[in-house]
Amino acid sequence: MKYRTLGKTGLKVSEIGIGTWQLADDLNCWVGADLKESLQSLYRYAELGGNFIDSAWIYGYSDTDDRHRSHELIAQFLKESGLRDKLVIASKVPPKNMQWPAFKNMPISEIFPDDWIVKCVDDSLRSLGIETLDLMQFHVWQDDFTDEDGWKETIRKLTAAGKVRHWGISANDYQPSNCFRAIETGLISSIQFILNIFHQRPAEKLLPFAAKHNIGLIARVPLDEGGLTGKFTVDTRFAVGDFRRHYFSPDRLKELIARTDNLKTLLNGEAGSLVELSLRYLLSLPEVSSAIPGMRRISHVESNNAVSDGRLLSDRLMSELKKHAWERNFNTSPLHTSTLPWSRNPFCLSQTARSSPASPCELTCSNFCF
């Protein structure tokens, strides 16, 4: 496993991090996890040199019993393994209104009031069983929040109290530039954002801007919610409760498969599979600190971690991959809770139908890419 510096935090993080949304069953999002294997996946990840665990307050959360199941599984691993001091643990503060992404013109008081930030930090520390978070990230963002001072003072106090070492932003889906003003405050040390072979737009502005300001970059959804594994067929169907049942509808699968079939023709010895190609694409971008695929199976941990061997894709192949960008949002209809199959998800944007004026791009839902 190779390591990179997470921007100005100075933290050395493994090139392959582990995303933990999938580890615990999450109704109407990721279902079907075997909790025993999820736990063993964490062990295997650490055994192979992985040290960056990315989680969130909301992953596996249930408001019926106020539990944070992803955090709890990580806590069990940390307690049993005794590896806390060798790992970088990240979590996220969810928006208080439980809407993803954050809409423009919504006051930060509805999304990140000061006492809510404090509560979510304390909840995360308790459920993870640790004293300090290495990185706490805002789980949505609008750069207009930068005009307000409350959140700035709050995170300064939490840092001074030793509860959080560094702060970051998990940028709104498909809005990779919606964080530049926050970066310029000097309070933000990392940005987590969607980046993969299909969604390459962040390379235009975010990557050079972050490099200029020494900001750590965490690439989420590196395998396009499984689309870039190359394993789907026209007959693929997802379990009830798996958000991909809608996200990859039969018609969308046909186009996805045509595109992944084209990508497979580019392997030619530089990668043995589409998964390897997808991860090597990210690691061939020097600005990227870590890519964080979800890995709830031991076999996935082993194959994904093996990509971090220092070998980059050729300039020729990187140039060729630019032609395969597929900028799209599979959820482009105005939101109406009653018509969306995942509307019961307690942290989906679609839980609340919005009636306030907004541009078309602000009325779209791509809230699966946490």
From TrEMBL:
InterPro entries: AKR_Detox_Biosynth, NAD(P)_OxRdtase_dom_sf, NADP_OxRdtase_dom. GO terms for cellular component: cytosol. One of its GO terms (molecular function) is oxidoreductase activity. Pfam families: Aldo_ket_red. Keywords: Oxidoreductase. Residues 15-324 form the NADP-dependent oxidoreductase domain. PANTHER family: NAD(P)-LINKED OXIDOREDUCTASE SUPERFAMILY PROTEIN, NADH-SPECIFIC METHYLGLYOXAL REDUCTASE-RELATED. This is Aldo/keto reductase.
